[in-house]
Amino acid sequence: MKKNLIIVGFIVTIIVIGIVILIPKPQDESTTLSSTSKQNEDEGKMVAGYSGKVLAGTTSPYLDFKKADYDKALADNKIIVLDFYANWCPICREEAPNLKAGFNELQTDKVVGFRVNYNDTETDNDEKELASNYSISYQHTKVILKDGKEVARSLESWDKETFLKEVNSTL
Fold first, then answer.
1. What is the CATH number of domain 39-168?
2. I want to staple 52 with a disulfide (CB 3.0 to 4.6 A). Which of 5, 63, 121, 127 is the partner?
3. In this structure, are residues 108 and 81 in contact, taking their beta carbons and an 8 Å threshold?
4. d(Cα 150, Cα 141) in Å, to the nearest integer?
5. What is the pLDDT of residues 147-165, one digit of tens each?
6. C-alpha distance from residue 63 to each of 23, 25, 50, 82 (Å)
């Protein structure tokens, strides 16, 4: 009986140690901030004339979609990048840092981007209507508008270089 208790205790100890080792530990906040500070320093701030949360970019903002902001960008004749994003989509989540890095690198005030929630828990009626207007049937679709008209569409996952190439080709 004593031998069985020792074996059970040993097994429980091994399991606990395994769990402790396998559970991801939060990164040191200072390391996280230093490695992403450029990318995130303006995230959440407001941009003059727009009400949506800034996700990236200063010269060319990448904003959480708000219909009033979209209408303003259209009226101001901006090149508009629509990123149809679903919070449950692994491709969308993997691609997000690349798009943010691209917007952070753009040096023109002619571009405004919007992350449009698509078929997720955050999608509102304006976003549903926009997706319908552009016949979006799949998350992580990117649509680029120039002079209010669609000039590019992609279902491909973009890295920063692809993003910059596609956007710069519309300037």
1. 3.40.30.10
2. 63
3. no
4. 13
5. 999 999 999 999 999 999 9
6. 33, 30, 9, 10
Phi-psi region of 44 (alpha: psi -120 to 50; beta: other; left: phi over 0): left
According to DSSP, the residues that pair with 84 across neighbouring strands are 116
Instruction: Decide: 142 and 158 in contact? Cβ < 8 Å.
Output: yes
Residue 134 half-sphere exposure, CB side, CA atoms within 13 Å? 26
Strands 142-146 and 79-85: antiparallel
Q: How confident is the prediction for the chain on average, in pLDDT?
A: 85
- Residue with the bigger pLDDT between 14 and 132: it is 132
Rounded to the nearest angstrom, the gap between the alpha carbon of residue 84 and the centroid of all alpha carbons in its chain is 9
- Domain spans in the chain, listed from the N-terminal domain onward: 39-168
Does the pLDDT value for residue 125 go beyond 70? yes
| Contact predicate 63/54, CB 8 Å | yes
- Cβ(140)–Cβ(84) below 8 Å: yes
pTM reported for the whole predicted model? 0.74
Q: What integer pLDDT is reported at residue 16 of this predicted model?
A: 60
